[in-house]
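step 4 of 6: structure.
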Amino acid sequence: MGSKAGAQMTGAEMVIRALLDQGVDTIFGYPGGAVLPIYDALFQQNELQHILVRHEQGATHSAEGYARSTGKVGVVLVTSGPGATNAVTGMVDALMDSIPLVVITGQVPTHLIGSDAFQECDTVGITRAATKHNYLVKSVEELPRILHEAFYVARSGRPGPVLVDIPKDIQFAAGAYTGPEDVEHRTYKPRVEGDEAKIREAIELMANAKRPVFYTGGGVINSGTKASEALRELVRLTGFPITSTLMGLGAYPHSDKQWLGMLGMHGTWEANHTMHDCDVMICLGARFDDRVTGRVDAFSPGSKKIHVDIDPSSINKIVRADVPIIGDVGNVILEMTRIWKAEKKKADKDALAKWWQQIDRWRARKSLNYSNSKTVIKPQYAVQRLYELTKGPNTYITTEVGQHQMWAAQYYGFEEPNRWMTSGGLGTMGYGLPAALGVQVAHPDALVCCIAGEASVLMNMQEMSTAAQHRLPVKIFIMNNEYMGMVRQWQQLLHGSRYSQSYSEALPDFVKLAEAYGCYGIRCEDPADLDAKIKEMIEVDAPVLFDCRVEKMENCFPMIPSGKAHNEMILGDAAAAEDIGSVITEEGKMLV
Amino acid sequence: MLAKNEPVSRHVLSVLVDNEPGVLGRVVGLFSGRGYNIESLTVSETEHDKHVSRITIVTSGTPAIIDQIEAQLGRLVPVHTVVDLTNSGPSVERELALIKVAGAGDARAEALRLADAFRARVMDATTESFVFELTGKPDKLDQFISLMLPLGLVEVSRTGVAAISRGPKGM
């Protein structure tokens, strides 16, 4: 191609040109009638790599994995009708977790729109609530501007998915191309610099805090590696303890002594108690999700809350912020650090020492302890061994959704940002396998491992075929307990152990399944074999399905029961299951 | 946490948006999707050259909910500005209604007398009906409509509220 701004080309060629001008090297997609012109343009060039998935949901999750592990925008190309509707789950997932995506959908030709044509659906109508923004392209003249705007909107402010629906006649039509430099958005200009007066107010609170805590989230990851670096400096400078949401893991190193572990429903005892008893909470790029707060009216009742977020609607949505700061969290952390140093601020040493003593008492409860077994593989043990044998800066972990996801968050330690890909907000079963493919595409030499459950992974199992085709040696580590484990756990705790439809009666033989896909299968049932088999998994230069048979009835602890506060969490040792059911109130049972 | 027992009050929001396809759908979808009320909504292009439309929404909620509605509206990509007219000084609001009343004899005469008292205009008349046009605050319209009810009210068409701040400054 090589043509630039002003050049005449077809709409389909504009799509390829715009993607290249936006720095895209890889897209994930699936062809169909309404995108054939774009696939034809794709065929006639060599700069843009296309990963052919097996289901459009797989394309969106792959693009999410790609985006989350690189900090770049993930790109999806699918056809109209079912192509678009299949991609909806991935878009909502990206919306909830603030992942930048550009999803290009084909649409029936303009003159057929509204006629219930073959493979027609109201894509922009359906995806209005599934995207940050979406466009139906009405003419080839506006196509380049819309494509560049889509990238701008996807990556600016709070990132998210943006959809561009392109009717087939516009893909064929010729027009003048315009480059990204000519596009300035008319309305969307998110604020990225925090208000200095507010930041100074926050610094005052921090300097006078007796029992402070940093509570950080996915926003720190989204803000880029500079934000994680800045966070590390600020946390060490102040000496305050730090916890993080599921989405924020890796922004602060797990091995550091100020790290308390994850907070929330399955967070550590020390993280949740620190949050409950703190007097100053510094929330950086997190949104007080219900999985974090537990019972909101008992959430950290005695603290002043500083809330930094790029999205004004996140502030005061769930929890009232005493010091709200709107801006890019990386910029705000740098500014906080600058002011802290310039003003020669010191934390209250004596108070902080006392606070750490209290935290150490909470730590001494060792809330992640579990009783191991010599005869059966405990899922926690499986994650611990996986961690010990795979850890390193070139290892990337994705997860499916459920118990295994929480065990992964609890027992796998992350030292760097962008190494942890999980579906936090939407909780999408079927996310992990395709996400791993996207990560592997972006990092061909990395070890990419998906910690999965046997139920979840089956939701997008067809993507093993994608892994085989594109030689993506992802390691799918399935902790197989034959149950939808988290569903079973809740049924045990809340519904009198009536395991309604949560047992999978007819699971495939995962080893044979791997082989059927042209991949490599491993099974492990004995804890004594686990290390050797994990090493085998790492060494095989092929996609692997690892069927790790684990304890079937293990529950995920610690746990804040529904409707309870942070300081009412329960530990595994105290958690004889029958007792827990009686702990949860009728009101709590109504919650999800 | 956010206060639960704050009083619910009525607010008039003015929203300037890019006049692009689907923008009204986004606004309405936001309200239904997040469970907010719409008591009335009016929309029309106000600056043709700039492709700007003005949406006036009457809603109700606690102060926290109203703040959240403002923030959520502000987050929509094609939205330029959101102003809570109720919270930002004095404003004027007007609504227009067309009211059809059918009847004969004393009722018909009484309807016309009341219309005159309310400064409603007669837009259409037959020997057995009137269509009145009435402009004013919504409660004035409500009152007039309730007076017409026993006098042969047939149907009502209302525009919803248009509102603007008092004084020299714009949004």
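step 5 of 6: annotate
 - Chain B touches chain A at residues 1-4, 17-18, 21-22, 25-26, 29, 33, 64, 67-68, 71-72, 74-75, 77-80 (CB under 8 Å).
 - The beta strands of chain B are 9-18, 40-47, 52-61, 79-84, 91-102, 121-126, 129-136, 153-165.
step 6 of 6: archive
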